[in-house]
Amino acid sequence: MSQAETEAQRPYIPTKRLNTSYPLIDNDPHFSRVVTYARPTDWAIGGACAAFPPSLLLLYERVAPSYVGKGGFAPIMRLATALGLGGGFLAVAIRSSTRFYGMRENVREQEKDMREMVDRVKKGQKPYGESRLSPYMQGVAARNSRYSALFLWGIPWFNFVNHEQHGVDTAKYYQQAERELEAERQGKKVGELLE
């Protein structure tokens, strides 16, 4: 039995859906989507998180000086800044990802997701992009990074693989694309369909 036949015989197990207050958009969003869908408030909170460690270190140095001089304080300040930047970015990624999971209000992200995916479908592309990996390896990647943002503060783990296992029915994108293409043939505006 070849490897392709073995992979074709493996059962597909649907992903677990969490009980959330808002609709699920994607349970394994690609890294680029997490960053591009982040709201300005996410970046502001991330900036505050990034500024906290160096600011705290400066405050400690003012309150209780270490007297190590510039040669000793500068490396620790650089380390605090690097940790702050890393933590700030993780805060942005966590907030953005939880909107994909439906754990936060996500109306803006739903609209943006629908627009992005329908545009891809209308161009004849797969909604989540092409992958060079085999379907089995795509599944492995999906299972390893699904809902990973819930523990992102402990293990920074992102999805960098295009695959089709995102916990949502992609038929809605194809149906909306068909409606829009039909409306374009009839001369209606695309915005009229979304209302």
User: Structural class, from helix and strand content?
Assistant: mainly alpha
Secondary structure: number of strands? 0
Radius of gyration: 22 Å
The share of residues in helices is 55-70%
Taken from the alpha-carbon principal axes, the silhouette is: elongated
> Could you spell the SSE succession in H and E letters?
HHHHHHHH
What's the tally of helices? 8
Major sheet size, sense and barrel closure: none
* Nearest-integer average pLDDT: 88
Low-pLDDT ranges: none
Span from first to last CA?
A: 52 Å
Strand content: under 5%
SSE diagram, text form:
Layout: H1 3-9, H2 31-36, H3 40-63, H4 70-100, H5 107-122, H6 135-145, H7 171-186, H8 190-194
Helix pairs in contact: 3-4, 5-7
Describe the structure.
It is a single chain. By secondary structure, this protein is mainly α. The protein has eight helices and no strands. The chain has helices spanning 3-9, 31-36, 40-63, 70-100, 107-122, 135-145, 171-186, 190-194. Helix 5 crosses helix 7 (171-186). The chain is elongated and about 75 Å long. 23% of the residues are buried. The mean pLDDT is 88.
Brief summary:
Helix content is 59%, strand content 0%.
Characteristics of this structure?
195 residues, mainly alpha, 59% helix, elongated
